[in-house]
Amino acid sequence: MRKDLGEQPAVYPMPVLMVAAFDENGKVNVMNAAWGMICDTDKIALFIDEDHKTTKNIRAVKAFTVSIADRDHMAEADFFGIATGNKMADKFERTGFHAVKSGYVNAPVIEEFPVAMECELAEIVETENLHAVVGKIVNVSADEKVLSENGKIDPAKLNALIFDQFQSGYYISGEKVGRAWNAGKDFMKK
Q: Which of 44, 64, 155, 189 could connect to 21 by a Cys-Cys bridge, CB 3.0–4.6 Å?
């Protein structure tokens, strides 16, 4: 039997994305954003409010990075979602994390997070129902510890955090249960 739960964002899993940008003076700000997704082979869309300090920084410098948060850095990732750079000037510094300037865009790569997409601002889409920051991915960098023997990112090694909007929890991904573009191929024979 199904039960009506009312209006709510019922999507699971959601990524735990760390969006980082410099301000006009080169100061790092990072925010936790679960509402983001790949929107083309070389683009990512972040559905983040225009009032975030990070959004303001992205508008100013036209570049940002998106890192995948992992289990080892859950507390810091959560803190980046709790605290606001609009009110806490030392938000990034409080974690003890380290940032280096991307070699591809004017944005910080947070060294502790294992995977980072380095993006140029492609556009900001603003409508009555949507505020989206779209970035063109110009490079992806990854810590070697999360790479497989074939040189690609291995989800089992990544321990990527995923967000649960139903119970406000964090989980990790990693168990492979099937192969994409293969698990359903028998239905093609009908």
A: 64
Other Cβ atoms less than 10 A from the Cβ of 149: the count is: 6
Task: For 10-66, write each residue's pLDDT tens digit.
Answer: 899 999 999 999 999 999 999 999 999 999 999 999 999 999 999 999 999 999 999
Structural contact between residues 60 and 24, judged by C-beta atoms closer than 8 angstroms: yes
Rg (CA), the chain: 18
Query: Which amino acid makes up residue 34?
Result: A
Is this model's pTM higher than 0.70 or not? yes
Q: How far apart are CA 105 and CA 7, in angstroms?
A: 39
Asked if 98 contacts 111 with a C-beta cutoff of 8 angstroms, the reply is yes
| Residues shown for the chain | 190
Coil/strand/helix, residue 116? strand
Largest CA-CA distance found in the chain, in angstroms, rounded: 61
Q: Nearest to residue 85, comparing CAs of 35, 17, 22?
A: 22
Residues 6+ away with beta carbon under 8 Å from 63:
21, 22, 102, 105, 106, 107, 118, 119, 120, 121
